[in-house]
Amino acid sequence: MTTVLGTCHHDCPDSCGWVATVDEASTDNAATGPVVVKLRGNKEHPFSQGELCPKVNRFIDRVYSPDRLLHPLVRTGPKGSGEFREATWDEALELVAKRVSDAIETHGGQTVLPWWSAGTQGLIQEGALHPLFFAKLGSSRRTGSLCGVTASGGIAATYGDPKAAEPSNVQHSDLIILWATNTKLTNRHLWPFIEKARARGAHVITIDPMRTATAEASDEVIQPLPGTDVAVMLAMMHVLIREGLIDQDYVDSYAVGFEELVEHVTDWTPERASAICGIDAQQITDLAIRYGQTNNSFITTLIGGEHHEHGAMLFRTMACLPVLTGAWRHRGGGLSKSTGVWSEAQIDFGAFQRPNLWDGADRRGLNMNHLGRSLTELSDPPVTVLFAWNGNPAVTVPNSDLIREGMLRDDLFTVVHEQFMTDTAALADVIFPACTQLEQLDVVPSWGHMYVGFNNPAIPPVGESVSNTEWFRRLSKAMGFTEPELFTSDSDLIDTALTEGSLHGIDRQALERDGFVRLDVSEDHNPYVEGGFATPSGRAELVSERLGEMGQPRLPTFIAPEESFIGADLSSRDAADYPLTLTTPKHHVRFLNSSYSALPKHGPPEGGPFIELDPVDAHKRGLNEGDNARVFNDRSSLTVPVRISERLRPGLVAVPFGWWAEGYEASNGSTANALTSDTLTDWGGGVSYGDTLVEVAAVND
Ligand SMILES: Nc1nc2c(c(=O)[nH]1)N[C@H]1C(S)=C(S)[C@@H](COP(=O)(O)OP(=O)(O)OC[C@H]3O[C@@H](n4cnc5c(=O)[nH]c(N)nc54)[C@H](O)[C@@H]3O)O[C@H]1N2
Ligand SMILES: Nc1nc2c(c(=O)[nH]1)N[C@H]1C(S)=C(S)[C@@H](COP(=O)(O)OP(=O)(O)OC[C@H]3O[C@@H](n4cnc5c(=O)[nH]c(N)nc54)[C@H](O)[C@@H]3O)O[C@H]1N2
Ligand code: SF4
Ligand SMILES: [Mo]
Question: pTM score, two decimals?
């Protein structure tokens, strides 16, 4: 037996360190060669501290699942029939090279669309080689983001860049606000740091429209309607000013626009906000006073708030709060969000973009959230080749019936690289088998803490699967490309990003030996103790001329999303076709987005998809617990069992996201995201899953 240090690759803030135990001599598994017999958390890892999670505790089941794709597959039946035959790598590559070359000859390079997500968020397996390969093809470019860029863009509007506090600093705080984040589910290894603060008497408030597991574990819960937080924040500002709770010295020294902001929020009384966000004016006043009276108040947030039409504005406004109270001055004070920007400052992600490989011509950008539109609406040129890997867009991207419609086009050639026959893979023409994190080399930058992880492969690739980088090397060879950069080895790719460019002391040897290293940031580092904002003025911008130039409000401003009843006469709700707001949250402890939902020890114990609604809404529609209901809007319709609870409020319903179509009892390919809105966010290129209206009706059969 040997042990191998690695790091979880999932798109999860915790980036846990792990230890794989490998039986070099095992013969009791279908896989040839060494077998991983145990995977546990690395006790030395300072953030995850030896624990993994209910998803990854069973990662070995995933690696050796009988459903794993182990050989290239070529479609034999009609599109979407799921009928494939095994092919050799050579045959499959040759087919792809021919179809791609023909398409480019007919329509030009931009007919090719690459779509990837963060199935692995490792440095090289997510980021390397594909930029070169698609630049060489002259393809369309993937733009936008499913996750994170809107939040970062919002914070950057106020601070100049998205830098905020190290999340574990929460342990030193006396007032913790978990704002639009479900820590206990999505960021579980941060919770012990919150408990540390609590043991010293810290008060924990969760602000979330849904009474989540995190809300249940908090001291106080505030449930605004989704998409209304900016109104709450403006009223908080009003109260902070009225009650003299501004740190005037901090504001005068390190911010711009205070006078204009004071004027702007004069009318934003808690009563006004209350009418929009549906929480008591007194609750908003109490929140503001508690926030203003606590020196080291700490707001923890991640991504939940960005999935709205005005998601960036939410983060831009939130970033003003710790400036106004001067919380940034104090240990345990400030705000934390994803920490990706810290790794980006110390690892040279740009090293993977070699601009010399293409002629510098502009290539059209297509937002990844608009995959369905890109496949069904473009003509100049149409998308006739889709490469999809490292993600499951047929399930995870909004307005997904349109994606399915596009992927069913006979004149579209789709190439997928996957570990499993996902809903996306099932719509492909050619599928290549992908390996898992236990089979590949990588470095894992974290977006939830300050440690960079290393991932040593524990075993060789299972079956004929290959890593993303090896897939691109093989595709480049099949296309007849010869530039040496396209064939860089994994180890050299890592060196490229760690040693070229802007690295500040990430020592690869230490990384490989220990499994992680800390970024060059001290543990008590607080980025804005003495201002130092990255804006042109060097100050936090309560008023932002840059936003004005982008056509956005210069000041924090509440704007109701278009697909909502917010700000509308609520009696109009009764007459509307789609009177209910739908949220489609991450809900299941055994899923990571749509990953794991089809595995037998993960999916079935979660019990299947459902619609959760308030007794008031249920009874209005004659629905009882366990009944089947239809949830529908103009985009799609789903049939799911009813769960009645008081975790939401009247007018707000939830369908958990993550199940593939086969998880629904009756589905012709639709999943929760068939219903969701693909309206883009105000800035940042994200999308507003959370601003979706539906109606729910009993199914009479
Ligand atoms: N178990 C598990 N863990 C995960 C994931 C998973 O799928 N499963 N996914 C990972 C990924 S990719 C990410 S990005 C992170 C996300 O981590 P989080 O941002 O913590 O998670 P979300 O569930 O996206 O959103 C958090 C909460 O925001 C609330 N919310 C939605 N709209 C609003 C609003 O307008 N106002 C307020 N105040 N709250 C709102 C939702 O009800 C939800 O409970 O989690 C990661 N961790
Ligand atoms: N309604 C709704 N929709 C949402 C969200 C929500 O809260 N509600 N959350 C959004 C968020 S925050 C995110 S980040 C996205 C996530 O969306 P996706 O990134 O599409 O997430 P997954 O469904 O986990 O798909 C990852 C896929 O990558 C594959 N994979 C894993 N490792 C590798 C690898 O090394 N190589 C290759 N080729 N494949 C690999 C896995 O098998 C899996 O099928 O979903 C978004 N969609
Ligand atoms: S999914 Fe997240 S919590 Fe689970 S092991 Fe991976 S990094 Fe840790
Ligand atoms: Mo995400």
Answer: 0.97
